[in-house]
Design goal:
The chain is an alpha+beta fold and 364 residues long. The protein contains eleven helices and eleven strands. It has a domain at 2-85 and 161-258 and 346-358: Alkaline Phosphatase, subunit A. A hairpin with a 5-residue loop joins strand 5 (171-172) and strand 6 (178-179). The radius of gyration is 21 Å and the shape is globular. The strands form four sheets. Strands 8-9-10-11 form a four-stranded antiparallel sheet, covered by helices on one side. Helix content is 30%, strand content 14%. The longest helix has 31 residues, at 123-153.
Length: 364
């Protein structure tokens, strides 16, 4: 989430010397507010910077609180950050699991159950869990539809740029793992990114009219690209260094030069993982800090065109390619450190710690 709001890779966050995205909009006269599900997005972690109002409340199932804010000052321009835990575990929506044998799952599945069982799920149980995840996705879709319908009913949708995305995907035992957070395979880092650009904004920027299916971008992009893209579409200048690049040229029917995408897991005490993905290859590096545990090979290298499922590790046979990609990762991170300081850990109060533990983001 922080990368969306800063245009920077995770290792570059630290103590920022440049404004976050809501602050850019606030300086231009926008109202800025956020509704989130709390947890790791609690304002104690610095996410509230740049927002007039920042509330750790789930909005997806109860959008009325959001619309009350919009209705209070309908003439004002606004920057709104909405976060929901849907479709995060626990999975509870069984609409697509009806008639399937639930086994031990039986209507609810979460991280705590998975750890408590400490044994392999049956094929039927795994299928039931995936069907529940699909149900939670459908519930999230319905909430987004309610949001868009509310904007349209107020005459705001034709004046509002909307970006819909996620901070991670989900694993369903593709590499022997479930959930997210510890690995950087594509099924955990490849997420949707949908942009709605209203006609008035398209005309102002000379953007091409999208077809019935919209404009589909097949090139690699990253969440760090949201910052400059939204700023450019809104006419908000960015006069400081960031690592993302605007995607607006794609909306004009143009192409941008190919670019690799860096993914990082930098907040885990026992290991650190980094990956670099080009349009052809992908390297995953694991730096283990706990010698008592086996986290797998230090380097994984995949040819994504021949092996999109990331099963055949080419690293032992292609050491030169590994070294070249490692050098590129180091260069990206070295460039980051020129403008940032070390992050200062936030002290956790008991209630916030309990919430993060329930979500599986920190241990006991």
């Amino acid at each position: 989430h922080r990368s969306m709001l800063t245009g920077l890779y995770p290792s570059s966050h630290g103590e920022l010397r440049s404004p976050r995205l809501p602050e850019l909009f606030w300086r231009r006269g926008y109202r800025t507010f956020a509704l989130t599900g709390g947890g790791q997005l609690d304002p104690k972690f610095g996410f509230g910077e740049g927002f007039e109002a920042y509330q750790g409340q789930e909005w997806l199932r109860e959008p009325e609180q959001l619309f009350r804010r919009l209705d209070a000052r309908p003439e004002s321009r606004f920057f709104l950050f909405l976060h929901s835990w849907e479709p995060h575990d626990p999975y509870e929506d069984t609409r697509f699991a009806e008639g399937m044998p639930p086994g031990r799952v039986d209507g609810r599945f979460d991280h705590a159950l998975w750890l408590a069982w400490n044994e392999e799920l049956t094929a039927e149980e795994k299928a039931y869990v995936e069907a529940m995840y699909d149900g939670d996705i459908a519930r999230a879709d319905e909430g987004i539809c309610d949001l868009l319908a509310g904007l349209e009913a107020r005459g705001l949708l034709d004046e509002t740029i909307v970006a819909i995305t996620s901070d991670h995907g989900e694993a369903f035992w593709e590499h022997g793992t479930w959930r997210h957070g510890m690995h950087l395979y594509d099924h955990q880092v490849h997420v949707p990114l949908i942009l709605w650009v209203p006609p008035a904004v398209r005309a102002r920027h000379g953007l091409a009219e999208p077809g019935a299916e919209g404009t589909v971008v097949l090139d690699q992009v990253g969440l760090i690209d949201l910052y400059p893209t939204l700023a450019e579409l809104a006419g908000v200048p960015v006069d400081h260094a960031i690592q993302g690049r605007s995607l607006v040229p794609y909306l004009r029917g143009e192409r941008l030069p190919p670019r690799e995408v860096l993914s990082e897991n930098v907040n885990v005490s026992r290991l650190e993982r980094k990956s670099l993905r080009t349009d052809r290859t992908k390297l995953i590096q694991t730096i283990a800090r706990d010698p008592e545990r086996d986290y797998g090979p230090e380097h994984l290298l995949f040819d994504l065109r021949r092996d999109p499922g990331e099963h055949e590790n080419l690293a032992p046979r292609m050491p030169a390619a590994v070294e070249a990609l490692l050098a590129r990762i180091a260069a990206i991170r070295a460039g980051s450190e020129e403008t940032l300081e070390e992050a200062v850990p936030a002290d956790l109060d008991p209630e916030l710690r309990k919430q993060l533990q329930a979500l599986g983001y920190i241990g006991n």
